[in-house]
Amino acid sequence: MQASPEQRRVSLALTGASGVCYGLRLLEVLSQSGHQIELMVSSSALQCLRLECQLPPHPKEFLEQLNVRRELIRIHRVENIASSLASGSSLGDLHAGLIVPCSMGTLARISMGNSANLIERHADVLIKERIPLVLVPRETPLSSLHLENLLRLSRLGCHIVPAMPGFYHHPQSKEDLIDHVVGKILDVIRIEHNLFKRWKGE
Fold this sequence. Notes:
Blueprint: E1 9-14, H1 20-32, E2 36-41, H2 43-53, H3 59-63, E3 73-76, E4 94-102, H4 104-111, H5 118-128, E5 133-137, H6 144-155, E6 159-160, H7 174-188
Parallel strand pairs: 1-2, 1-4, 2-3, 4-5, 5-6
């Protein structure tokens, strides 16, 4: 992996799929490492935060309960299509965009270029500007429709990183499983980490 210690600016969107814990952990790791985060949280993701993590359903409130560097996180309202994230001319030094987790509805709309909110419009801009976009679906089983949408996005250059933790590193906790997936996401966008023990061969 050609990792770089440089501080990066990335966008991170949380959408309404189970597995919001992956997005929260990614938020912590990125900010603790000094990277700047442009954060978007859908209304459905806020419900998942409350149901799965018992966190308040408001970005400013739930960030207070996480181990993050708040000064490095800028919140964008998903209803604000006038946000700088909605225009390719404003992305500047953006290193990559991440949607973690990515719901099947969000994935379908992105695959068809049908932008109903800032998250989907931002993804559309990343694709057209050839800026890395990482989608982390967490759904099972997958229907043919899901698979067709995933294939279409992969062919457009998106990175598909399903939330499928491995076990070769002998995880001892739920946190180990989460870190394995988060580490795989960081690998794709070439950001250095030490979240899991890499396989060195037998």
